[in-house]
Predict the structure of 4-hydroxy-tetrahydrodipicolinate synthase.
Amino acid sequence: MTTTAPRPFGRALCAMITPFTAGGALDPDAARAHAAHLVAEGCDGIVLSGTTGESPTTTDAEKSALLRAVRAEVGDGVPLLTGVGSPDTAHTLRLARQAEEAGADGLLVVSPYYSRPPQAAVEAHFLRVADSTGLPLMLYDIPGRTGTRIEPETLLRLAEHPRVVAVKDCAYDMLGSTKVLTRTSLAYYSGCEELNLPLYAVGGAGYVSTVANVAPRHMRAPLDAFDAGRTEEAARLNRNTARLTELMMASGLPGAVTAKALLAAGPVREPLQPAGRGAADGLRAAYEELLALG
């Protein structure tokens, strides 16, 4: 039952945190160690400087240093994507070129936020980025954060560009996603853990997961079971992760906060604040329950 969906960056990708020192500086050593752990535990690829990577509060220089450090650790065989999204097209283009120079395999590009551009402007923005480097793009559709959807019709047109190859899907629109899957060769990666298996079952490529920071093998297991034809097991394994996913991703705290609470990977940067004691204890209990399930 293995899916035939294109997988330009593998199936199981982690949206990696950005570790900081106690003083709040980028911690390249911790980033290298965490990336190596993720790969050893079953992640096919890593996405840096995304939402979970606290990209709005890291500098351009830090983004480049993080990418170079992780590349040096994991080598050339592990796909590395880096977030280059910003509300400013000119800045996004600079970040894209910087990422190419630093050794990225692909670019995660969110729709421009805050200004809420119309679809024609969103499309023009992505095409400018696609034409700025030789790297493939994963478009990041997350209207809950950006305020602007990448509409299915826009995706259908963007799919005609040879370097627009994938979508990180956080739109919560299975009908729209299925429509684009049916009519293009775009690789769809779930960005919402509860939809990892459902999207995969209708032709998705895999996922880009925040929860994979703390439970990489558990997030991958449902897809492995599905590919082996064990669909009931896949559903059970997917259900096993639901409680931890809920607390990490739908409890009112951002994923960067909840992941760092479990990993003790340094502070988050303001305006984010660390998880309180009660939230941290609940996260730890859910994590231990998942581990007990095997």
Notes: Residues 10-216 form a domain with the TIM Barrel fold (CATH 3.20.20.70). The chain has one domain: 10-216. The chain has a mean pLDDT of 96.
